[in-house]
Amino acid sequence: MNSEPTTLLQGTLDLLILKSLIAGEMHGLGISRRIEQITGGTFVVKPGSLFPALHRMEEEGWISSFWGESENNRRAKYYRLSKSGLKQLEVETKRWGRISWAIAQALEAS
Amino acid sequence: MPLLVKVRSFLRNSFLSRRVEVDLDQEVHSHFELLTDENIRAGMSPKEAQRAARIELGGIEQVKEQVRKERIGNWLRSVISDCRYGLQQLRKNPGFTAVTILTLALGIAVNATMFSLVSAFLLQRPPGREPERVAVVTSVSPTQGFQSDANPVSAPNYLAWREANHFFTDMAAADEYRAVSLTFQGKPEALRSAAVSPNYFSVLGVSPQLGRFFSDGEDQPGRDHVVILSHELWERHFGSGVSVIGSTIRLNRENYTVIGVMPASFRLLGFTPQLWTPLVLTPADQTAAARKDRSLFLFARLKPGITVEEARAELATLARRAEEAFPDTEKGWGAAVRTLPDFLVYAFSIRSALGIMMTTVTFVLLIACANVAGLLLARAAGRRKELALRIALGASRLRIIRQLLTENLVIALLGGGTGLLLAYWGINSARAKMTFNEGISAVPLSLDRNVLLFTLVVSLVCALLCGLVPALSASRTDINTNLKEESRAASSSRSHSRLRTVMVTGEVALALFLLIGTGLLIRGIFLMEHQNLGFQADHLLTAGVTLDSARYKDASQQALFVRDILPRLQHIPGTEAVAVTSDLPATGPGTVTLQVKGQQDLPSNQRLTALDVVVTADYFRATGIPLLRGRAFAETDNAATPRVILVNQEFVHRHLRDQEPLGKQIRLDVSGSTPQWSEIVGVVGNVKTYSEGTTDDPEAYELFLQRPVPSFSIMVRATSDPNSLASAMRNAVAQVDAELPLNRLMSMSSIIERQKGGNLLFSRILGSFALLALILAAIGIYGLVAYSVGQRTHEIGIRMALGAKSPDVLRMVLWEGMKMTAIGGAIGLAMALPLPKLFGAIFYGVQLREPRLYFIVPTAILVVAMLATYIPARHASRMDAMSALHQE
Lengths: 110, 888
Description:
The complex is a heterodimer. Chain A is an alpha+beta fold.
């Protein structure tokens, strides 16, 4: 895999956050690490992008938040996927499929 | 429900903002702690771990700001917080706030006040259904002159055109200027009435407030004694009572039945009489002779889909047909078609005056904006550190620009609000002053919707004009240099100083242009005020009389009245001379075409013209118009003796080419009577055509007994105060005819005063605007120069440390100020060059040439600019080099 972290495509961040929350509720750092892990380190999400996205998605109603205890007894804000978030994940996944297929087609054509 | 979630978030963000903020703060902090823990677990020392966490986080405040930006309702929230912040800033600098708001308020107030005039005169839609579909047809006179294309139409043409046209659904006619006498409770009163065809109101598409309009057939003799009252007359005489319908009033000695009352909203600028009677057209109005009597304005409604241009083309054809059929009277005459709104504004001829005033106030506003922009620029420089801090804490450039613009908006709106208060006062005082003309005083001035909207737009534009440049330049701040230390650069950046130069230059140019323009106008009005009108206006009492056809059926009875009244007036103690005249001197008498015996006939559009005045024998003694040659009218001249005529010097000069006038025969084409040759027996001095103009036109004086007219003015020259003779004059007239009203019983000087009233007010308003502009420009120049000197303190300190003497510094600063003034002055002068020509076109017959002005005004500006530069320059030159260098 590429060692250089790649800048996120517009719209991909939402998809990655939703996807990572499938595994269960998580706090911000957890989400960030999970994305790093599932993309094999390609995407590193900085707090400056992560938190605005989390708050926006919460306002959209895709995720909800609550305060809880972290694994080493720190107070942390946790996020979990809501019903409409699950639906949104489907939508985004389909959309992403279309895009990547289209880009692949475009690149193969010569 | 996503929408519900969004609404809940919006409400939460808006109303629980503190809790949301605390929550965010805790979340970011906990994230930081989690990161630190993670790093410690990875084997870092606690200190190292914290540092690495901080780097990865990228700054707690920045993250928070980014989250805030994403929130729903963030836009509204930030605007509100910008406003709050702006107000806070304004409260912190009360001096700055007061000056900026007041400057803007003054600029906005004069604009709003002037715009209320524009709104009242130009933007008011005439009453009725689709007024822009109503066409007004007028005659175009072959002779050039003031509104020569808005002459009334003759009755035969009206009848012919009404029949022949294809483009109007209906055509109505109105004789707008009929003087009638209303006898109310025994007292006669002169009123302005209009005689209108029965379909007049239906063509306009209006409805009465009470009663009904004229019905078909009420324009026939015998059935025509019906009258419709204006709202104002109904209120004044009949206490707004409903019972007025069906009652009888006495008009011109005859009984008329009141059938309707118009609503107060029925106003057509100059075409708003106090009552309406039916227009009766008899067979006499259809003869060839009646073609010369042009007294009807035609109002016609366009058929659906027909444009004004099409109607115009058709009327042109019809006018040409009349020209061919009746070359004697119609040669050269055409027809003009305008929409009703256009026609009213054109006939009222106020557009150009309003145009000048609006341009002036716009310039005043521009100067005010330039001043405020200068102040903001100066302040923005002082706030550079604060802005740099905000940028460093994560505020984007756009955010900073928006914040500064919002602050300016707050200033502009406060200025606009204050301006509106000032304008309210201004409009009231304008309304109180605008009584010199019935047409004008009847127009209601108010802070209407248009004015409010205009003020709002002007305020917003001001905010943008004043604020954009300073905001852009402030947001371009370089964080590092500004945070480290207040810029130690030797002098402020190049773009900044160029901006200042442009602003000072612009202000100087605008102020110069305004001052010269206003100076020219005031000079022109002063010339008119102090010119010799050609007669002695003092000690003259005048009153208008219109002999009605009910009692004074023909010329001999009109002559009889005059012969009866003159001796009675002569016997009033304190009377020196008495005369009757068709037109008071310098009030713009009517023009007739004429022919000189022995000169060849000219084509109709090149015929000689003269102002035609009909007077009694003593007129020249009463008015003090000097007799230069020959003799005046004598008691022995009367209807039975050969016709005699007097002309003025201008007549001899222009029409007789300075040849011997006495004994020459001339013939005036007077409407309504057969032209007769008359002998010139004397030459009198010129009288100005209008007291508010400077032109001398050829004049011809006919003798009243040889050509009586039904409408005239009585003049009495008094040995003392003319107004003291007023009641005696009224009694004398009442002895002859108790039902005859006197119209405008007043002294000649007050008539002239009234005629000039508009000009006087106009010049006073413009004068105060120009003064305001000069003061604003002075403040602006002072502010900008002082600021630029302040900015250069450091540079000046270096120069002095390197050996520059204080006179050198003084010279340097003064020189730069003068350079800007000179460039601005040159631009302003160039702009002002075409002004005399422009004003000459606007003020009919006024010659404006004033070379001195082009010297005085630039000098005044230069002196003001010099002072405005000198004070900060001296301050700079007296600075101690060391303290200047240490100053930040």
